[in-house]
């Protein structure tokens, strides 16, 4: 068995042990088994990465669905893209597993939690390792399932259950798009294997703007909208924060939500030939980035802020994809995985210390009590705000530079978004860690730094957030852009137009966005540290702030537009169509027979003479009828 | 000694037809008007026999024995029918102490 | 001989069961059902995957009329015979927790029903087919009318008359076709195919209508479905399982075996209407299911929606569609039997199926939750479960026929998730209610049903090719007859 097959196998085994043995596997062992499974996958991935020779490898396991000429095989593909994703998923995944041992230690569903985490890893690995779209779809839906299970992990609370359902259903809307995209691919190319589809495109002489490719790419993008929480399917992600915090870190920040970006990079050959789709991708990304960032400005739940920040950062990634800056987007996927996982885990550490309090209005001054959490959180905040030399700066500026080449207006909006990012992140940092403590006495008494199982992953991620940018250190600073160079073969067949950016211009752009971010951080410092402003209590927001705090009432809008009409339709179908239309006809036929019979049966009056008379009369009538020609002469 | 068909042929065919028709109508009227089950039964027999008569007559005139063979069948069946019919009447009488068919309307509606 | 014994064994078993009174009857019935399953498995094992009809057997029945007792198994029959033999033991086992009055009669009827169903799926003579088609109705009528719920008489009467009404159209069509066969006539299915070739479009349209009504009522398709939710709700759960798990497949089987090859021109003309009705059914059933409060009724509507997709796939007349419908019949049988059983388990303990009264069951029942979720996932067609393979192929088939209809039919994967997740959440999650407090976890018997079913959900999802390979030659041949 090759190493490639082992990678998804380890988490599967971990899932089976913890899943089947739930309540039998001792608590101390459950976490270790799962973490070991994740780590073993990471080790395999790392070994493969180090021994990678640049040639894609395909491992065929078995034929899954064969119908006529269509053969969908269960097979894995190992190339630059899947390797990098594997490293991120298993690496960050392992850290979060370890963190969860500490975070979930008091939970009764400990073993179950780790079983689900391992199952998630398994599906996520299938998603990125599959060598065809259908295997990707398995992983795609599988992670959706795990996301559902983990969001609703505390299933006694029906609000959490609703959030979980919302996530699953919104994802399914996207999945339908993905599925239809797959059908179109099969109809058009007769295969779902990446290698076959892409080589057919490369050899088929498709011109830019091809109609079929446009439809395929747009359908796949609908799938990506669902999974990666883009407008209009983003509302599930903030709600998904109902799940345990490590879940938010792993699934709803670092890995699963980047599946959409993975998919588009994987299909870059098609996207590069569909400029209309790319425009849509870019504008949807930008709109999402701005909308989510603006909502993030006034949220008071520490995890909600991070959730909107995730949506917003995903928007940036899509914007990058939309301008064909594939490797830059991927770079951002990677750095984002580091610093966003770190932010969530840090938030988890804070929540853990605060006895499950998530409202930043009740926090403050935590930096003394939670020094490690504070420092790591600070690093992550700087990283996400795009301040050099931390990871976020490099990846975000690379995207923005490409956007600038493409469309100046879009770039301006992008910078606006990064100003907001910097503001809400520093607002979060200041309200949580600076000033005076605003919680209850009991909480204050309970404050403590988290155990080593939780802080160790924080520190590792902090280091990665700090130096992550150097994985793709740009040429203008004398780097080699090694990530971009590594990914180069993925885009060989893709029709990407490269416009060289003027170096001085690029530096100017960087300075603009860095200054903007710093200024915005300064404003946050002024408002929340110097003036010690605390956000107003629930329900006291006014004007625009109220609208933004209530997320522009998008949830209510969807409720009115979709949920309520469907509910009404359901009742209408059941009560009107079913009973008053269809059944009326069906029962009507029965009633008709009944009515007729009640009339006709009166003929049977029981008098024998009457029957005989009728008989004689009928015979006579028949006689007359049959002799009519004779009688009439 | 004359052959029976020859004797039959001594009377014109028309007479047989009219006589049978008359017998048949008497039978029908009997069935329709009487309420006593036995009389109804006898009337039915009368109708059967009128038909038998006609069959025999035509058979003779046509010199075709099939008609007369049919008559034997009809008589045999009629005998069986009478046996069953009378048994039913007896049962009815035992049950309701009457054989007035007007009272037998249990199958009404 | 194997086919004949598959039909005869349940009949003999039923008679024996009938003779036994008391508790042992159920055990005897179960043993025989497993023996039948062993025969089914042997059939599956000895089947050679090609297009021919195998294990054939033919006796004169009504010699002068050319009607024969003629049975045989091809790939299409095989999958359904296998489903029948597979499901009945679990259906019998699922009743072990209940104490029915005159239980031996119930088990005998279940076994008779099985015989009739196997007969329907293996008959190669159209009159034999019709005979079994109607014979299957009798046991289920009594099962529902004797052991059913409060409204059982009215509801089963409606069901019985409705389906008989539909079958009569089929009988008319069959007689018409039979009279077209040359010489002294023959009711052999191939002779009928042969005779139907010469028909013109208008005749085919009438025949299409006659067959379609019969099968559409049986499945049921929109708008012939109003008997179905009520019957499913009122029948005892074993009856509901028989109806939804196996019996509705008679209708689907009829579409494949009769409508497609006999009236191809009729399908050209009217197939579009049939697909539209099917797709309306999918959406209509799913949307209604969203708001249902009774778990059984909810699953009934979901089953209605799933059947719509099967029918749409068949009428799209391509390999994916028909293969998908075959694999989906197997999958749907397994899932729906499992889900109805879970409802039964909940009803046994909580004495209610009302979603508004349930909740929080999972807190005391980890096993039940796991099985429920696996079966639910099969039903919402999550990849690597059996439901996905079927729905994927069916949707692909419909999509190939017409992309827009395919997209609308695809809404089933969204709506399916909506109502299934709602059901799971309302019943299993949240806070315990008065009636779900102290809910006990599965007993051994219950596990003995749910474990194999859940195993099949996943196994069939991972290795669907086992069955797809068996049916493909027969389906290809069928498609070549049509074209």
List the strand order in the largest sheet of chain C: 1-2
- Poorly predicted segments of chain C: none
- Which oligomerization state do the chains in this entry correspond to? heterotrimer
Percent of sequence in beta strands of chain C: under 5%
Low-confidence stretches of chain A: none
Mean pLDDT of chain C: 91
What characteristic shape of chain A results from the CA principal axes? globular
What's the average pLDDT of chain A? 88
For the record, give the distance between the C-alpha atoms at the N and C termini of chain C, rounded to a whole number: 33 Å
Largest sheet of chain C: 2 strands, antiparallel
EC number (chain B): 7.1.1.-
Protein name (chain B): NADH-quinone oxidoreductase subunit K
Enzyme class (chain B): translocase
Subcellular location (chain B): Cell membrane; Membrane
Write a structural description:
The complex is a heterotrimer of chains A (633), B (109) and C (483). Chain A has 633 residues and is mostly helical. Chain A has 2 domains: 3-549, no CATH class; 557-632. Chain A is built from 26 helices and 2 strands. Chain A has helices at residues 3-20, 27-50, 80-103, 110-129, 133-151, 158-189, 194-203, 211-227, 236-239, 245-254, 259-266, 268-272, 275-296, 302-322, 326-353, 371-385, 391-406, 408-433, 441-446, 452-467, 482-487, 503-530, 543-549, 554-600, 608-626, 628-632; strands spanning 57-67, 70-78. In chain A, strand 1 and strand 2 form a beta hairpin. In chain A, helix 14 packs antiparallel against helix 15 and helix 14 (302-322) packs across helix 17. The radius of gyration of chain A is 31 Å and the shape is globular. Chain A starts with a helix and ends with a helix. Chain B has 109 residues and is an all-alpha fold. Chain B has one domain: Orthogonal Bundle (Helix Hairpins). Helices cover 77% and strands 0% of the residues of chain B. Chain B contains 4 helices and no strands. In chain B, helix 3 (37-62) packs antiparallel against helix 4. The longest helix of chain B has 31 residues, at 66-96. Chain B is elongated and about 55 Å long. The mean pLDDT of chain B is 89. Chain C has a domain at 267-483. Chain C has helices spanning 2-19, 24-46, 75-94, 103-122, 126-135, 137-147, 152-180, 189-196, 201-218, 227-234, 237-262, 264-290, 295-315, 319-350, 366-379, 386-401, 403-428, 444-462, 465-482; strands spanning 54-62, 67-73. The model of chain C has no long low-confidence stretch (mean pLDDT 91). In chain C, a hairpin with a 4-residue loop joins strand 1 and strand 2. Chain C has 483 residues and is mostly helical. In chain C, 75% of the residues lie in helices and 3% in strands. The radius of gyration of chain C is 21 Å and the shape is globular. The chains are: A mainly alpha (633), B mainly alpha (109), C mainly alpha (483). Chains in contact: A-B, A-C. At the A-C interface, strand 1, helix 5, helix 6 and helix 24 of A face helix 7, helix 12, helix 14, helix 16 and helix 17 of C. Chain C: InterPro entries: NADH_Q_OxRdtase_chainM/4 (IPR010227), NADH_UbQ_OxRdtase (IPR003918), ND/Mrp_TM (IPR001750). Chain C: Residues 123-412 form the NADH:quinone oxidoreductase/Mrp antiporter transmembrane domain.
